[in-house]
Amino acid sequence: MDMTSPRATSAKIVVAGGFGVGKTTMVGSVSEIRPLTTEAIMTMASVDVDDTTAVAGKKTTTVAMDFGRITIDQELILYLFGTPGQNRFWFMWDELVRGAIGAVVLVDPRRLADCFSAVDFFEQCGLPYVVGVNCFDGVQPNTIRELREALTIRPEVPILTCDARRRDSTKQLLIALVEYVLRARGTAPLAARTPVPLT
Question: N or C, fewer C-beta in 10 Å, the chain?
Answer without folding.
Answer: N
